[in-house]
Inverse folding.
């Protein structure tokens, strides 16, 4: 079958779909370390994992609305300055299963672990585009190019057997501060096949869907990419829109993700011993916004405690500080005293004072994306 040559995977991953392979780690793996090891990093695919075995011949073609098209080999990309950027990748479908419980949505079910944080190493897209004559901070090329399209090697059924693709605005692609990477390393190791070997795009602060794996070509285009995953998926609709009245053209493709926060030290329904309980999890926001605060309640939202936040252990986290990783999650921790069964809640506030919606019903959407509602744990006290 098409899936006969899939790479080996860690047995702890919970498989949400076998072919294509979609899997997430247990919650505890996410809070075990600030950086998520590749083995425990969620894997989100729309087709079989491609095989690139002739790395000498592998090249990314850059063409479209540019003066000269160019084939870039790995050696050309490695010649550019190497940047290592810590970026949290989150699938727009993270926490979809919980959204589907209030009203059914369509899509692969995910618990809370369709997210991970890694150091991605590679060339800045802004530097790569200079090789085809597009200067930094360009918003339109001489030939009318305004978007940068990434096309993969893989094949997916949503594209009728064609490759996965997406685009970002040229202004973001040519802005060195946006840190868009063509990455060949993850946590200091060569990318593995599941995560895009030999080369993938990393678009920080944006839903994972735009970070195209197994890059085949880059096209400079006038209008945003017309591919399935830009136009017929990964858009946020209001709760009033369902499959019988959807008009995809009325919404923009989702780019930045909103502020998110999840408790990872407990399952949604947990039995705990009475007394002190350490609660930990992750919080993250899109667009490079930091996390200003994480609030935890152990009485169903009547009163709140502020959790401590950190990225590198031992270093207190300050949102939007020069020493903080601006594209990365923060882990949080708070110790509480619990003596009777209760609802534990966590919610975060980002550096633009954006807050999370209280109820999932208010943000329900037919594709089940961006469930960022308050994360609630039913804690039953037992002995
Ligand atoms: N790129 C290709 N070529 N094919 C894909 O199916 N999935 C996207 C994105 N890039 C995808 C892709 C989605 S929806 C997400 S969330 C991320 O990759 C997942 O990246 P990961 O598997 O490295 O965690
Ligand atoms: Mo995704």
């Amino acid at each position: 079958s098409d899936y006969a040559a899939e790479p080996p995977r860690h047995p702890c991953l919970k498989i949400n779909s076998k072919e294509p392979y979609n899997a997430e780690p247990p919650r505890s793996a996410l809070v075990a370390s600030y950086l998520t090891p590749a083995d425990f990093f969620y894997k989100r695919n729309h087709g079989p994992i491609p095989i690139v075995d002739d790395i000498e011949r592998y090249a990314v073609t850059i063409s479209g609305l540019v003066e000269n098209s160019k084939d870039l080999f790995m050696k050309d990309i490695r010649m550019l300055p190497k940047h290592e950027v810590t970026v949290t990748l989150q699938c727009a479908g993270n926490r979809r299963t919980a959204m589907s419980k209030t009203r059914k949505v369509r899509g692969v079910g995910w618990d809370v672990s369709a997210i991970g944080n890694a150091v991605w190493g590679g060339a800045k897209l802004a530097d790569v585009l200079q090789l085809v004559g597009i200067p930094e901070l360009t918003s339109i090329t001489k030939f009318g190019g305004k978007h940068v399209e990434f096309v993969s090697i893989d094949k997916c059924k949503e594209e009728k057997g064609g490759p996965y693709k997406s685009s970002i605005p040229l202004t973001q692609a040519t802005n060195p501060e946006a840190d868009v990477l063509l990455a060949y390393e993850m946590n200091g190791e060569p990318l593995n096949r599941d995560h895009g070997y030999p080369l993938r795009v990393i678009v920080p602060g944006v839903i994972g869907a735009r970070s195209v794996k197994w890059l085949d070509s880059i096209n400079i285009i006038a209008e945003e990419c017309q591919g399935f995953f830009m136009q017929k998926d990964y858009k946020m609709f209001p709760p009033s829109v369902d499959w019988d009245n959807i008009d995809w053209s009325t919404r923009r493709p989702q780019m930045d993700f909103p502020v998110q926060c999840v408790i990872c030290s407990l399952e949604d329904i947990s039995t705990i011993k009475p007394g002190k309980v350490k609660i930990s999890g992750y919080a993250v926001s899109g667009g490079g916004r930091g996390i200003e605060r994480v609030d935890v309640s152990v009485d169903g939202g009547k009163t709140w405690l502020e959790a401590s936040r950190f990225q590198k252990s031992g270093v207190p986290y300050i949102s939007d500080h020069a020493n903080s990783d601006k594209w990365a999650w923060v882990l949080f921790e708070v110790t509480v005293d619990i003596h009777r069964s209760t609802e534990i809640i966590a919610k975060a506030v980002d550096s633009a004072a954006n807050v999370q919606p209280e109820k999932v019903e208010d943000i329900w959407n037919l594709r089940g994306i961006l469930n960022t509602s308050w994360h609630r744990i039913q804690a039953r006290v037992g002995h």
Summary: Residues 260-381 form a domain with the Immunoglobulin-like fold (CATH 2.60.40.650). The CA atoms of residues 62 and 218 lie 5 Å apart.
